[in-house]
Design brief:
261 residues; alpha/beta; four-stranded antiparallel beta sheet; 29% strand
């Protein structure tokens, strides 16, 4: 049997003595773009924090390529996972190049310094995302969309197996949302896997190979977007009437949209 890149089995987790996530299981493979969808408060972010070992689960098992994640060191996890938050503004006016180079931190120890190899990896990440012309710009003076692309480049500089994103477009305008999502979808062609939490069904239809649907702390469906994101299920989890419609675009492509009524 082929080993999954990420496997979560019967995970129970929460905060203090309150359990938020109840017995969730999921699996992802290399080069896959997966989305976790669900209403606010259903446990999506709590699940991510436990996968990343930012919180300790009550019970269950999380493995990357067969290794138990909680048994790894922080440095080992940082070489496997990269995390892209909703928004980020560092306290100091670093250059874009310096922000991307921070992704090399998991490969350094207290006695080593950034070298030519690290700079080549960071430059390649910026070129892949088309932002190399921003390398000398001040990160804090750039737009929200540009900053998110820079953080994606920083994630790529970590050379991770899996990039985890928690509603990474929540603070972006419509145009920048599409740019960020398009670039992330393209990255999976190089073998990097992406796990993204989103509250927007459009994003899952646009990006995902696989969708995990959560409701009240439980995983209620897993599968291809069109198989699990039905009108009936979306109406149930978001508690609003809607239609799921296939649309022909003027460039000849097809897409699916979710329209509230």
């Amino acid at each position: 049997m082929t080993e999954h890149l990420l496997s979560v089995h019967d995970l129970h987790c929460g905060y203090g003595h309150k359990e938020i996530v109840h017995g969730v299981s999921l699996a992802m493979d290399e080069g896959e773009f997966a989305c976790i969808i669900g209403a606010n408060g259903c446990g999506k972010t709590t699940l991510l924090k436990n996968i990343l070992c930012l919180e300790k689960p009550f019970a269950g098992d999380i493995r990357m390529q067969g290794r138990t994640v909680v048994s790894m060191t922080d440095q080992e996890r940082a070489r496997i996972f990269a995390y892209l938050p909703q928004a980020h503004t560092p306290p100091f006016p670093f250059t874009v190049g310096d922000v991307v180079l921070m992704g090399r931190s998991p490969y350094l120890d207290r006695f080593s310094r950034i070298n030519k190899h690290d700079r080549e990896i960071a430059w390649k990440a910026m070129r892949l995302l088309g932002i190399e012309d921003l390398a000398q710009r001040t990160y804090t003076k750039l737009s929200g969309g540009q900053r998110q692309l820079i953080l994606i480049a920083r994630c790529l500089a970590q050379q991770p197996k899996l990039i985890i994103m928690d509603e990474p477009t929540a603070s972006l305008d419509f145009g920048n949302q599409q740019i960020v999502l398009s670039r992330m979808r393209e990255l999976t062609k190089s073998g990097v896997s992406v796990l993204m939490v989103t509250h927007d069904p459009h994003h899952a239809f646009f990006c995902a190979d696989r969708v995990f649907v959560m409701q009240e702390g439980r995983m209620i469906a897993t599968g291809a977007p069109h198989d699990v994101m039905t009108r009936e299920r979306l109406e149930d989890i978001y508690r609003t009437p809607l239609d799921v419609i296939d649309v022909d675009l003027r460039n000849g492509a097809e897409t699916t949209v979710c329209v509230p009524l």
